[in-house]
Amino acid sequence: MSYYKVYCIIVTYNAMRWIDKCIATIKEDHIQLEIVVIDNNSTDGTVEYIKENFPDIKILPQHDNLGFSGANNIGYEMALKNNADFVYLLNQDTISYPNTIEKLIKIHESNSAIGVVSPLHLNDNGDKLDKKFEEYITSGSCPNYISDMSLGNPKEYYSIGFVNAAAWLISIETVKKMGGLFSSAFFHYGEDSNFLSRLRFHKKECVIVPNSFIHHLREERAGKMSIEFEKKKLSIKKVEIMMNVNVEYNKAVSTLYRYAGQQVFKRNFSGAYELFTYPIFSKSSIKKIRESYKTQQII
After folding, report:
1. Which of 85, 86, 223, 254 is the most buried (most CB within 10 A)?
2. Residues 6+ apart with CB under 8 A from 112
3. Measured at the alpha carbon of residue 275, what is the angle toward residues 277 and 134, in degrees to the nearest 5?
4. What angle (nearest 5°) sits at the alpha carbon of residue 265, between those of residues 259 and 271?
5. How crowded is residue 297: how many other Cβ atoms within 10 Å of its Cβ?
6. Which residue spans within the chain are E strands per DSSP?
7. What is the separation, in whole angstroms, between the first and last Cα of the chain?
8. 299 touches 194 (CB < 8 A)
9. 162 phi/psi in degrees, rounded to 5
10. Residue 236 pLDDT grade (very low, low, confident, very high; cuts 50, 70, 90)
11. What pLDDT score does 286 carry?
12. Contact 298/179 with Cβ under 8 angstroms?
C-alpha cells in the first residue's frame, strides 16, 4: 500500500485539549501519509503547540475562522495539487488506532461503488459506540448491521445513509466527480450531509467498517448546546433540505414546511419562524447551485 498517497486533513479551532492525542495516535505503516492542519484562527496556543511538538506536520494558520467547510476545502486543494490519491478528513477531537487508514483504503478498493469510508466512532472511553453514531445506525439507514453484530457475523463493511465527517476517507477522484469537497453554502454543520446527498446523486455509497475505529471525544459536550445554537441548527437544516440535489424543489419546500409544523407542535415558535422564512436564497439561485452539483463544479 506504500504506493498510495494520503493527505490527512485536520481542521483545528482552539484544539489544545485534544490535539496531542489526535496527532500522536495517527500511525500508518504502509501508506504515504501527510498530515495537514488547517487552523481556524485559534487563540489558545494550538498553532504554537503543533509547531513545537510536531515539526514535521504542515500547518496552515488562517487569519479568520473559515468554518469546517472552508478549511477542509483548503486541505483538499493542497492534496489535489500534490497528487494525493486520498484525503482523510479527521476531527480534532479524535483518537485513532494503528493502520486505520490502511484498512479503510482496502475497503474502498474492494468496490467501485464506494465513495466515502468511515471507521466506527466510539465514545470517549472506547467501550461503546458514540451515541450520535449509534443513532445513525439505528435510524434504519444501515440495514443488517445490528443483527449481524449480535450474531457475531459482521460483514467487511455496511452501507449507511449518513455518518458525520469526523473520520472520512475519500478518493481524490471521487471528490472530483462530486465537483469538489464541501459547498460554500455551509460553514459548519450540514456540509457532510450535503456532500453525501451529492454522493448518492452520482451513484456512490457511504460505508462504515466494523474492524476499524476512532474515539470521538464529545460526550462531555453532549446536551450543552445553547438556545442560539439550536436555532442555528434549524437554519442549517433549512439550507440542507433546499440544497438536496436528489429532491425536487417543490417537494423540498413541502419538507421544510413539515419541519416547521413540527416546531409549532413543540411550541418552538421562533424555530418554526426560522424554517417558514425559507427563501434565504432565491429559487433561481437554489436551482443554480443544485445544477452545479450535477455538473461537477460546486458553488
Report:
1. 86
2. none
3. 160
4. 55
5. 10
6. 5-12, 32-39, 58-61, 86-91, 94-96, 114-122, 158-159, 167-171, 205-216
7. 34
8. no
9. -155, 140
10. confident
11. 75
12. yes
Segment among 133-142, 186-195, 228-237, 239-248 with least mean pLDDT: 228-237
pTM (2 decimals)?
0.91
| Contact call for residues 116 and 89 (beta carbons, < 8 A) | no
Which stretch, 138-142, 157-161, 248-252, has highest mean pLDDT? Answer: 157-161
What are the tens digits of pLDDT across the range 139-155?
A: 888 999 999 998 999 99
3-state secondary structure of 280: coil
Instruction: Return the C-alpha cell found at 189.
Output: 454543520
Query: Please, are residues 22 and 49 in contact by the beta-carbon 8 Å criterion?
Result: no
Enter the C-alpha cell of residue 71: 478549511
Compute how many other C-beta atoms are within 10 angstroms of the C-beta atom of residue 76: 23
Evaluate whether 243 touches 289 at the Cβ level (below 8 Å): yes
pLDDT score of 296: 60
Packing angle, helices 283-294 and 191-201, rounded to 10:
60
Tell me what percent of the residues of the chain surpass a pLDDT of 70: 92
Query: Phi/psi of residue 74, each to 5°?
Result: -65, -45
Whole-angstrom distance, CA of residue 215 vs CA of residue 128: 10
- Confidence band for 271, pLDDT divided at 50, 70 and 90: confident
Compute φ and ψ for 253, nearest 5 degrees. Answer: -60, -40
Q: pLDDT tens across 100-127, in order?
A: 999 999 999 999 999 999 999 999 999 9
- Longest Cα–Cα distance of the chain, Å, equals 57
Q: Which residues contact 131 (CB under 8 A, 6 or more apart)?
A: 123, 219, 222
